[in-house]
Amino acid sequence: MSKPNLRFIWFLVAILLCLQLTITGTVRSAPAVKVKELSFIFSHGAAGTACGMQLLSDVILERMPAYIGAYELSNPGIKVRVNVLNRCYPNDVDVETWARNIAESAERFLPGKRNLIIVGHSMGGKATLYGLAKNVGGLADKTALVVTINTPVKPLAQYQIAGGGSAVEYCRARWLRSDRGVCKSAAYYDSSEDGAWVGQNRHWLALISAESAPLSTQFDFGGIDTYPREMDDAVVPLSAQYADGADVIYYGQYFHSDFHTLREPAGLIADGILTYIFGGIIECPVLVKEGSLEHRATGFLGADHWQDMVGDMLGISGAVQHKNESLFLWQEWEDIVEYMPPTYESVKRTRFEASLARNSSPFARIEEARWLEPDNPEDFRLYLRTRAAPRQSLRVDWSIYRQDLLPKGKQRNRFEVRVVAGTPLTAINKASWATHDPRDLGIVVFSKAERPFRWFRAEWKVFQQESRYRKLIEEIPAVLE
Questions:
Q1: What number does CATH give the domain 314-402?
Q2: Helix 95-109 × helix 123-133 angle, to 10°
Q3: Mean pLDDT of each 10-residue bin along the chain, 481 residues long
Q4: Which CATH number is 34-290+467-480's, of 3.10.50.40, 3.40.50.620, 3.40.50.1820, 3.40.50.10840?
Q5: Cβ–Cβ < 8 Å for 316, 400
Q6: Residues of the chain with CATH 2.60.40
Q7: Nearest to 280 by CA among 472, 10, 8
């Protein structure tokens, strides 16, 4: 029997040792984990406390695991860590002091943390915009996203208060026992430029809400509408809650602080914030159409009421002219005029206008003006019956209006109606979409004015949805744990 080859045996031993070391190293050296850290700071509003932001904070934390799980699943090797700071701040100070308090809290309780997400309600949001734009306490260097909720971005002094008082006086009387500058900041400081800076250099998400019409009773606590000429949330007019540079989300007809106690608005706000952070489509309102309307009451006692359709479009206009050649008899005419919409559009009629021209005889009149088929909104034929005295002439100017529809795939988002001029004792007490069609831009506006001779002028705006994709977390660096 031959002796075993010692060289061959030592060669096998060396191979086994190498394999063992390789396997052991593979088991022990797990891949390095990278972490993305999200640090939330919540800032309440004037006369508020941290309790007001508690429900929103809780809802965000409740829904966060689903968003984190989906993100970590699609990004293996990356973990998401969340910090939350919800503190009470002096709630009656000016925006500069408030911003400094936020910065000091961030430095004390979240030392070294960057990519902050600051969620500010009302004046808390206004102070945050100021803090970033002016880099108070280095906030601009630490913050990735500012979320404002029902924040008075524009100065409240430019809006008419019920009873004619000033915004500062109203703020002090209704909301605060003491005022160390917050009311003046709300009334006179315009945060539009601050917001524009944040929107351009960081991210700004503005969440807004309001009643359905300027004099709606939805939020008239105590029977008083704070801003009788504005669509508002009882504290801040809708048009004051945003400015250029913001990604705006209109979350519905809610009171200024409904999200403090109601889960529905808190959930809508939470989902908007989390979608913005972890990736998804947010629907932002973009102005697509605007105009104005004006009414004046007559000279008798009582009140005049109007119902206006706005946001539709002119289909066609024209004139009908007649002359009575008779020397002794009145003459009557019947005319049918119509509009033929393009065959590629499926639109419906909205309204018509018919009036005697100024050069018509004083002894001529319109006896009847109506749709030829009143129950068929797709029939654009207009029936006119007119009458004139002997040897008299008339001219009827007429217009037929139709729906103004957005292109297929587009949807309307919201509207604004506000009174911009006029006398007291006038009101827009109701406004609504004309139809349930999400592409239809038409609005029905109900208004009134007390006689005699009181008047108002209002402006209206219609916004369509613009889908914007946001994924803030992709801008947050992952660091080795």
A1: 2.60.40
A2: 80
A3: 53 55 47 91 96 98 98 96 97 98 98 97 99 98 98 98 88 81 97 99 99 94 90 98 98 98 98 98 98 95 96 97 95 97 89 95 96 97 98 97 96 98 96 98 98 97 98 96 79
A4: 3.40.50.1820
A5: yes
A6: 314-402
A7: 472
